[in-house]
């Protein structure tokens, strides 16, 4: 797609940003000292039962997905998998609060958010399987490519949201980053731009306690990561990242605020990474079992289960139905991932530029000769088995 | 440059197999033990010992003031190293992966490379930037870049790449001892390569800036470094079947560049192929080919050829074997040397 073909490009006239009101009292920007909670509190009674059940089903499916993907690394079907087990509430809420027209900017750990937003489970895994960098069209799904260099997706989210606003579109961008990523310069620059431009962006920090081996205490000296918002002139919200209803509510409010033209919000969700950093990491080198066990008692699925069963909204049968559905999803994923992807080595040269340079054509021809020698020219139809 | 490694001891006792990663770790340890101003900093270098375990045990032995887990911010890490070096310390910085060093590029190019020059020689910066680099380990996006061309295009930086376990130890010791900044590129796929090597009896190592002939030969010269050295040695063995007697030169550093060793070889053999896995266009091979041509024009029987990675962003792991120059591509170039000579 060339730039001229972009939807609405011809008629494009930028709309000025909303008028700036200088802030006299920073107090409303400050996060509450305690993470916001819904489950197990009085507020839970007001939570929409349908939403809670939906969150529950998605969480169970998400956990099963994580387990299945991790198992696939052991069978060599995935190059690597950074599991989000324990963090499902953040992943799912991030996906569910967005409208279709909104955009999600995930980091490399956020496969689950992309899947919950509707991305095909296999397409979501191509990066980690190693056949493609991004297996889907970001414009089609309004999901930016899963981003590996930390925090670099955040300025993109700001720019996209800003552009949408200039075009007069009612679009919000939600960008996800880890606690470690908040130390990168890109994080700070993105927050500053967003606040100055009053861009309709929501930043979701999943504070899962560690950046690989480095605990939060070595990452920041701030009272909370949500506090970082204040210095840029945006509200910071602290939420229990294992309380799906709370994360959903806080993110919904932030998205609504952005949509109203009131600017960005920084949300810190306090959660925990139950598995190692990736399947290739050995978490016993830097954390003890007892810490993990403490968090297991505060498991996001258990919290919801307790709420739903306590209110008579869920019983054994209901749980079984949800688990069976998750199992079918996992089965499908397993089956599809067990098929070798069909790869064409010539694709290496296809998407470097819109039009191949002479140089690349030359190199492609050279590779073709090698492939012909490898396979014999007749039994090739331009594609080969991936493994 | 000092030659710390060359004087580190006679080869005594029986050497045991060690990996390149272990030799690098030992070089860090010995440098820290000898010189209290040597500090290691980076992401996950402490408790975890680095994602490749190169810094394993350093925090335990020297404390976390000397081997520090930093916040996750490459510009901050290298920028802080600049300040530390300005105040008399000798920082060794670890960038976790090649493509994650880019946020630090501003510090590297604008300050690390230029401080000596900007201050009229008053303030050299003895910083070593260790970068696990290159492909071939099945890493996903952004974990396999070869970035040496960016670094070598920046005057003021040494660019050093070990290809053997001995060199991993020796060159890192030298880099840390150097009063100039060194970008030390560690070929990831050789981290687990082994050699009979013992920290108590390291082999004498040529100082930084000297290329080494890894295999003598008469009919053509393969010029290479880092991850492509084993490829070239294998190709040289295979080429004997075709009657080729190939000389293999391991550059060991791109900056400084050892014109003498390279030119002397090519003058003898009359033919040369430069082999590296980073992209060819604008890559190190072009510079090397030009230098060889300038010095050896009358001795050349064929143009200097390049075998390099394709001019594409590093591919996904399932496709990387098509990108990385392997033995066949090297042999193909060697065959073309013959064709050029006949035509
Ligand atoms: C710019 C950059 N530097 C380093 C890395 C290597 N790396 C990958 S994940 C990671 C830790 C990330 O921690 P955090 O941001 O807390 O996210 P989490 O892994 O906990 O989800 C690091 C250092 C990277 N991907 N990008």
Automatic annotation (TrEMBL), chain A:
Domain Dehydrogenase E1 component: 67-342
Region annotation Disordered: where it falls in the sequence: 1-34
Top-level division of the source organism's lineage: Bacteria
CDD domains to which the protein is assigned, alphabetical: TPP_E1_PDC_ADC_BCADC (cd02000)
Keywords: Oxidoreductase, Pyruvate, Thiamine pyrophosphate
InterPro entries associated with the record: Alpha-ketoacid_DH_E1_comp, DH_E1, PdhA/BkdA, THDP-binding
Cofactor requirement: thiamine diphosphate
A Pfam short name: E1_dh
Name of protein: Pyruvate dehydrogenase (Acetyl-transferring) E1 component subunit alpha
Gene responsible for this protein: pdhA
UniProtKB/TrEMBL annotation, chain B:
GO molecular function: oxidoreductase activity
Domain Transketolase-like pyrimidine-binding: 18-193
Keywords of the record: Oxidoreductase
Species of the source: Streptomyces glycanivorans
Cofactor(s) demanded: thiamine diphosphate
Residues covered by region (Disordered): 1-20
Top-tier EC class: oxidoreductase
Presence of keyword RNA-binding: no
Record EC number: 1.2.4.4
Superkingdom: Bacteria
Protein name as annotated: 3-methyl-2-oxobutanoate dehydrogenase (2-methylpropanoyl-transferring)
